[in-house]
Predict the structure.
Amino acid sequence: MLELNIKKKLNNFTLDIECKIESNRIGILGGSGAGKSMILKMLAGIEKPDKGYIKLDDKILFDSEKKIDIKPKDRNIGYCFQNYALFPNLTVYENIVIGLGKPERADVDKFLEKFELTKIKDSKPNKISGGQAARVAMARILIRKPKALLFDEAFSALDIYLRDHIQEEIAQILKDFEGSAIFVSHSRDEVYRFCDSTMVIDAGKISNIGNTKKIFKYPETKLTAILTGCKNISDIRYISDNTIEAIDWGIKFHFSKELPKDINAIGIRAHEFVPVWEETGTNLIEFKLKSRAKLPFEDNYYLYTKGSSDITWLVQKDIKEKIDSRGLPKFLQIDEENILLLK
Amino acid sequence: MSNVLAHLDWSPFFITLKIGLLSTIICFFLGVGLAYVSLYMNKRIMAVFDSILTLPMVLPPTVVGFFLLLIFSRRRPVGIFLYNNFQIKIVQSFIGCVLAAFIIAFPLMYKNAKSAFLQLDKNLIYAGRTLGLSEFQIFFKVVCPITSPSLFSGAILSFARAIGEYGATSMLAGNISGKTSTISQQIAYLVQNQSYLEAGIWVGIVLFIAFLIMLLMEYIQR
């Protein structure tokens, strides 16, 4: 459970966040410099809000009115930094036990074993691999039995294979972890996988908040659509109650039901297009191929439209095989449920 | 030559060494401490603070000596106060030598420590805090060990600068044989009296020390 009401003046904007999130797996999405990391730093007590309060899992960490500001070392919150922030002058073992009292050190061997660090316990951080560094960081945090975990762009420096691997380990750890875990990330996969609730922030303000699955399905705002990975976004104008024109593509879309009046743009996820070889059905998109990027298991098609912007079409295995046998389709079709209506 | 060597007064060597060591020790602790404290200052205050502390680096040493004289002369309030209450004499004394060397050498220590601290990954300090370390522990267990090469280079440079000090020292402490006569002052004095051979011996000694210092710097930076 996280309850925030914080204001802090930053260089370019004022961070102003007010929210109450019941779930204890929370994701924070936002462009770079939107203030994501600052929120985590304030939760950890490294940075101080100008005013407001922070309540995490029934514990008030900060309250400017009641003059509560618990020191970071007493908050008992584990903070996993992007670069792990291992102390370069200390060995793996020393990194893990730093800040522990004598009795707590009894567990160290167990932790080293659990995180597969026994063999490298006397190595300095610059002598170990990225995956090992990530494990040291986790071991160092978890041995203190933290009440909450914060992940600040963690693991984004790892290569894809290792990241999957570490994410799987994190998933296992989180299964047994009862406190809150909060992820700041520009990796949508990470947020989608771990977080029940997601907060999207832009220039220090909440632009969207709610259930993660719902936010990915109905992003509602342009920014959220982009941050959740929508590659095709166009501004629109209304032609009638149920017809709109996507200005950037020069394409009209017809809907079976009346559209809400406050739509400014639409988004279409790159994998939602359906190839059509004959001119049948509604909402057909005419295109000309601009270029094609062959990826190992899927292809990215970049298509010219009648408007000023291109469309990206992600072609997965089954459609790839169809194209190989039948040639490039004449049109792309899009189901109206798969058109994201954005404000 | 052997005659000159046999009768050489070695006191400038030991006086210089003592001044160098004492002023470097003061520079080191004060420089490291103030540089660390300054990190917590508001940016504008920090700029003013830095400028004042590093001013002696760009001022001619004689100007520094002039100010020191102005402050510590026994005809002025501070000088009178120090002498009447503590019997401390700064002008024309060994303490004056150390003070002058310290003021001139301090910016080197401060600058080195400061840039080392600024280069330090801030997340390491943050990590220390979230891992339950006190600020004291963070400073001694993390910050100091990581920045130690820069801190030691700073100390060595300060030492080198301190033992070569001439301008401010000659104005504040004078050249009293066996008391405030440093190698630099001795060389100037000997050349004035046309004792080129003896001056040359001191020059050789200075060259040798300077070489040792540079060697040590290379070793630390490896």
Remarks:
- Residues 271 and 314 of chain A are 5 Å apart (CA to CA).
